Amino acid sequence: MLERIKDPVDQIDLYPAQTPAASRTISVVICSYADWRWDDLQRACVSVLEQLGEGDELVVVVDHNDGLLARARSEFPTARVVPNAGRKGLSDARNTGVETSRGDVIAFLDDDAVARPGWVTGLRTAFASDDVAVAGTTVRPNWEGGSAPRWFPEEFGWVVGCSYRGLPEEKTTIRNPIGASMAVRRTIFGKVGGFSDAIGRVGTKPVGCEETEFCIRVSAHDSTYKVVFDPFSAVDHYVPAVRQTMKYFVSRCYHEGRSKRIVSMLQGTEAGLSSERKYVRVTLPSAVIKGVTGAVRRPAGLLRAGVVVIGLSSTVLGYVVESLHRGQVTVGGH
């Protein structure tokens, strides 16, 4: 089992050497935990199996659910279906997928997301350069009901695990991708370890940031490593009605603040909040101004502007509460 990381460490490289880009194999890891998400899991697996080439594979990791494990093994005989060998939660489920898989590149897809045609090829191409350590793609929301609530601001797409206004619109380097659709060069895990179980989702509790902490650790290990974003490859991430409520919105923002505080404590606030500073200084004020100035023609814009303020306030509150909980009320330092 990959070591559950609390702080950056160097490890012996136990993984195979890099291979030419055209022949790099892809292992797609999908983690699942709940029987009620079975239909979503089926769609996710089918979307991947249709794209796999020679040497590629699908690995399904079931998080402490024996019934779901047996059902998945029966339904997907060509996939490698295994139980989470670590602690309950997404971080160790992903670590189990890394240990179980064999590909040169390990891609992670949420069990309620569907890979669009060309997704696997796009990720394979992203690793053509040997200095690319991590790659991510666009994550488009697939709203139950057909569209987002009128009050939902596009700048908060991350609340439902999707891309959001403010992300790059061309291929470029970023701090970290969205975890619903990301890939990591196998050799990287041998150098920095796996995903930290100090953060990350367990069941339906709306926490996260394990991919953020991981990518910061990768960059800290070697500044020449690149984390890249390809907006032209995409997955569709299902957003059920239960996640389209203000209650969920506020809760998710609050727990994001808590998660960001933990990341800052593990990796320092400079790295832990580097992307968030621009987001707060530029993206969110722009959203508020746009909503207020366009309120005459589009009254819903004023509502969305108010939700932006609520979302930011809830996130800051979570950050502060986590700081108080850990006895650290200052923003600086570890």
How would you characterize this protein structure?
The protein is α/β, with parallel strands linked by helices. The protein has a domain at 21-243: Spore Coat Polysaccharide Biosynthesis Protein SpsA, Chain A (Alpha-Beta Complex). 40% of the residues lie in helices and 18% in strands. It is built from ten helices and nine strands. It has helices spanning 38-49, 66-75, 90-100, 119-126, 186-192, 210-221, 246-267, 269-272, 274-293, 299-325; strands at 26-32, 57-62, 80-83, 105-110, 113-115, 132-143, 172-173, 181-185, 226-239. Strands 1, 2, 3, 4, 5, 6, 7, 8 and 9 form a nine-stranded mixed sheet that branches. Helix 7 crosses helix 10 (299-325) and helix 9 runs antiparallel to helix 10. The two termini are 28 Å apart. The model is unreliable at 3-19 and 329-334 (pLDDT under 50).
**Second-tier CATH architecture of the domain at 21-243:** Alpha-Beta Complex
CATH topology of the domain at 21-243: Spore Coat Polysaccharide Biosynthesis Protein SpsA, Chain A
CATH class of the domain at 21-243: Alpha Beta
Radius of gyration, in Å, reads 19 Å
- Using the alpha-carbon principal axes, give the shape: globular
Q: What is the share of helical residues?
A: 25-40%
**Number of extended strands:** 9
What structural category arises from helix and sheet content?
Answer: alpha/beta
What are the secondary-structure elements, in order, as H or E? EHEHEHEEHEEEHHEHHHH
Organism: Paractinoplanes tereljensis
InterPro entries: Glyco_trans_2-like, Nucleotide-diphossugar_trans
Protein name: Glycosyl transferase family 2
Pathway: Cell wall biogenesis; cell wall polysaccharide biosynthesis
